[in-house]
Amino acid sequence: MSDKAGKRFDLATQGRICVLCPNMCRYLCPVASVEKIETTSPRGKATLALGLGRGEIAFSEGEAAALYHCATCKICREWCPSNVDLPEVTRELRERAAREGMAPPAVRNLAERLIRDRSLHGPAAALAAEGASRYRQLVSPGAKVLYFAGCSTATLQPRVVAATLRLFEAAGVKVARLQTEECCGLPLDVLGFREEAAAFARGLAAAVEAGGYQTVVSGCPMCTQVMKDRYPALGVTLRADVRHVAEYFAGLAEEGALGGPAGKRDAGPPVGVVTYHDPCYLGRYQGVYDPPRRLLTGVAGLALVEMERHGELAACCGGAFTTDTVRPGTATSLASRRIEEAGRTGAGTLVTACPHCLEMLGPAGKGLAVRDIAEALAERLGVLPRRSA
Length: 389
Fold this sequence. Notes:
The protein folds into 3 domains: 3-103, no CATH class; 108-251, 3-Layer(aba) Sandwich (Rossmann fold); 262-380, Rossmann fold (3-Layer(aba) Sandwich). Helix content is 48%, strand content 7%. It has 19 helices and 8 strands. The longest helix has 18 residues, at 194-211.
């Protein structure tokens, strides 16, 4: 993980440092680049947070709404000489906004729906029943590895779920799924609903312990990040090793269990050049940059060409809850910009490793095929039928 992850100052000090800085990060902030107002820049949001924290600015719905003009992508931190972490600076104020009923209506509506349904895109129980029927032949209830698909993947991307389960099967790994998979709690945590997020976290931790699972694997980096890093802050202990799909399968490939130089790979016919989009929550939050690339080139045998902004400085797709929920127009603009950047590489396919990135970038594709890494890998290994578009 980037050495930027460590904090050297308390949050109030970070806010003061950001306000007094020359603020070169404004040129990288994805939200500011679209909205083009100083309030939206990192320093603008830090100034607001500082004034609110000191009581110099009255806390109202208008000021609270401005706190959500942040994609939580953390790219500003990569250029910050003082290691200011803006999402952390504003976290407590978002929690205050949620607690006092001042969060934007769209945020409150999402939280209420999530708490009611236990999942982002419909009642969790109904989704679980559908999934149990669809994937029955690919799971082993007594397995010690748990595949946690995540709300968006389970509901919107069944092909990615099937691809991931086929990869487990190809590697000879028995995998289980929860009888009813509920949200991991990250959306609530990011939007300021801390106690509600902690309740979701406790529920998942209890389910993992009850099932005796030793490893939790998910293709959603938001899920893996909250389990790894935020659950302890929420007072929850998850007694299992948590891995993103890219990390887990890259490890299996190194052992020769999933194609690659040490194993056997049926790469199929050439499919052209691909480019890879680094999800914010997998890259800057968890420091996972190489495993997806090793899978694409070493296991899938694909030619990879990088976008101008990649790795630590990869551009956000707009899929963060703080952007897509509050400023959907801004989120769509960010997705379109990223697709244009991918198109300039000459690649025919854009691969990512996050369901929210896939959800944002897919509709903006403009003739560029957009795939999840599990789907791209499963197709190349011949364990999932290839699709043409």
